[in-house]
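A sample copied in:

***
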Amino acid sequence: MARASLKSGIGLALSVVFLWLALRNVEWSGVGSAWRGARLDLLALGTALLAGSWFIAAIRWRVLLSGVAGLRIRDAFAFIMIGYLANTVLPLRLGDLARASLMGRRKNAGISRALGSLAIERLMDVLMLVALTLVLMRVLEIPAAIQAGLTGMVAAGLVGLVGLMVVSLNRKHLPRLTAFLAKVMPHRVADRVLTLLGNFSSGADVLHRPAGFLAVVALSAGVWLAAGAGTLAWVTAFHLDVPWYAGFFVLVMVNLGSAIPSSPGYVGVYHYLAMLALSLWTPDRNATLAYAIGTHALNMLANVGLGSFYLTREGVSLRSLRAEI
């Protein structure tokens, strides 16, 4: 409990710092003018494309859990949106645990298996983020600090992906591992560890089938392309004088920053990093702050709106959901 409170406190403090960095030296009259001039049709299009990226992510999750009976794409989408709602309103970014818990209990998938599929999702997203950045580097000089961070991300992503696939492919040898673990720890603990490892690694089963692997890669690319197109629509809506690839660079920056502890809803960190990315082409802080506040609000409204709808449909409350995880 004390550790959770400390992490929440650190996240809140960092959000305050980044929010101060975003709000300093702005003229609110200029921010308001940028809001009033924004194109509503492009804001709506950007939001629709963002929601489309979540739907593609639901299809990907369904592919990763292809062995789960009775799992429909709309169920996967519902659990994803509930997870995003949890990330938006609950501390410590509990969204992944929330949707893994719902998937495991409602569809009898096993929470550890659901978590294994989420690990694959995260690893694929890291690799897609790196691939997108490598493409951007051909038209844009990426700061050295970001390049260094990406090097670490791709190394960790590849190691994690290979590790899960190795365990999945060699699951038949797990009994031998059980015998070893039983010698160094209590038998009950060894069995528990082995069960969790087996269920967790089953999330990678689809990756050692060529068709399944290609489907996950293609869907992962679709997630990021849809999100990038949505970000580009938002940037265009605010009449910012930037090249076409600026929206994708903003997407990269705000997602790299997701590793930074923050308050629920990613307040402050999102705003500052979006403004920092756009500042490469647009020095007008009023306009970039208007973009950051407006798009963050649209993102949160979509998360809360869809998440609340599906939370009600599933007949659970945020309190009970948090208690489960």
Summary: Residues 6 and 12 are 10 Å apart (CA to CA). The chain has one domain: 27-324. Residues 27-324 form one domain.
